[in-house]
Design a protein that fits this description.
The protein has 337 residues and is mostly helical. The chain has three domains: 121 residues, no CATH class; 87 residues, no CATH class; 60 residues, no CATH class. Helices cover 82% and strands 0% of the residues. Helix 3 packs antiparallel against helix 6, helix 3 packs antiparallel against helix 7 and helix 4 crosses helix 11. It is globular.
Length: 337
């Protein structure tokens, strides 16, 4: 093959190699997610702890190593509190599962009665058989199990965090690593802050209207708020089944939905936008695509970590001339005509 022919097919070869590399990387992500997910979680915790230790050193002249130890203790305290809150919420829900089943049957009788008043014929026996075949309560209980599964690898995460803390205390970081840590820690701090605010406001709204499972729904709101665009919508609608079983279709449901919609609108579109600015400098279409990709690869945890993971990939791609155009595309450097 002549040099002219080789140079002609060079772009095609590059694209094919990139596709093969991407396929291999995806396979690695899927088959090693049991270890990689705890590692990535520990990495983000380490980034936050490093930022906290640096801030304590600059603001209060606290020794960097002491700051890391304080960060680790704070991480353990938050994790223990989160596990206890979620466990108690799940236990209360499971204990009342039979009550909710009875309420569902009562609500179904109410719907059938209203339908008969308007001369709408509904086969009650068929509806009851259909509902009996659908594992509604098993699916709802699985939500609690899914939340608990986020903490099943707590020991592995803790070990990773300890080794990363030791590395932070004993190694000098390149300028690129420091820049990545600064941007990711800023995003995570803002996201944690707005998620806590959204969860607190959700709990206040649900507790004020005496909605059951208010604490569990608030914790779910905190977690879902990390999923861009889709998460707040799911968090807003998540109390609907509980409200229906508790009050039926009345003003309680309308009031709660209105207040929660207002809460997520103000927090997501005003406060978060103001505090976060341009965020990770990712195009909205890229955010949606990354959400789908990481959710397919790592499930719910992938959806929660989609934005910071994609942002890190973008920063790495910006370091090389060959991959810099891809980084520009991730940042919205393209136009559709």
């Amino acid at each position: 093959m002549t040099k002219e022919t080789a140079s002609k097919f060079a772009p095609i070869n590059t694209v094919c190699l990139m596709i093969l590399a991407a396929s291999a990387a995806m396979s690695v992500l899927v088959y090693t997610k049991t270890v990689l997910m705890p590692f990535v979680i520990a990495l983000f915790i380490s980034i936050l702890a490093n930022s906290l230790a640096t801030w304590l050193k600059q603001k209060w002249k606290v020794n960097y190593l002491v700051g890391l130890v304080c960060s680790f203790l704070a991480f353990m305290a938050v994790l223990i509190l989160a596990v206890s809150f979620i466990s108690s919420s799940i236990e209360s829900f499971v204990a009342g599962a039979d009550i909710y089943k009875d309420r569902l049957n009562d609500s179904l009788d109410w719907i059938l009665d209203k339908a008969s008043n308007y001369h709408i014929n509904i086969n009650a026996e068929f509806v009851n058989e259909t509902l009996a075949k659908i594992p509604v309560f098993n699916m709802v209980k699985s939500v609690g199990s899914l939340i608990v599964s986020l903490f099943t690898n707590i020991l592995l995460i803790t070990l990773f965090v300890i080794f990363m803390f030791l590395g932070n205390a004993s190694a000098e970081k390149p300028a690129f690593v420091g820049n990545v840590q600064k941007q990711i820690s800023f995003y995570l701090l803002v996201k944690i802050g707005v998620s806590l605010l959204a969860a607190l406001c959700t709990w206040i709204v649900l507790a004020t209207t005496k909605t059951e499972l208010a604490m569990m729904l608030a914790v779910l709101t905190f977690i879902l708020n990390f999923i861009p665009n889709i998460g707040p919508v799911i968090a807003t609608l998540s109390p609907v089944p509980v409200l229906f079983l508790q009050y039926g279709f009345d003003w309680h449901m309308l009031l709660v939905l209105t207040l929660l919609t207002a809460v997520h609108f103000v927090i997501g579109n005003i406060l978060e936008t103001r505090w976060l600015g341009q965020g990770m400098n990712l195009h909205p279409l890229v955010v949606i695509a990354s959400l789908i990709f990481w959710a397919l690869v790592w499930g719910v945890m992938g959806a929660l970590l989609a934005v910071p993971l994609t942002a890190i990939i973008k920063m790495i791609l910006e370091q090389h001339e060959t991959t810099r155009p891809i980084a520009r595309v991730l940042g919205g450097g393209f136009s559709i005509k």
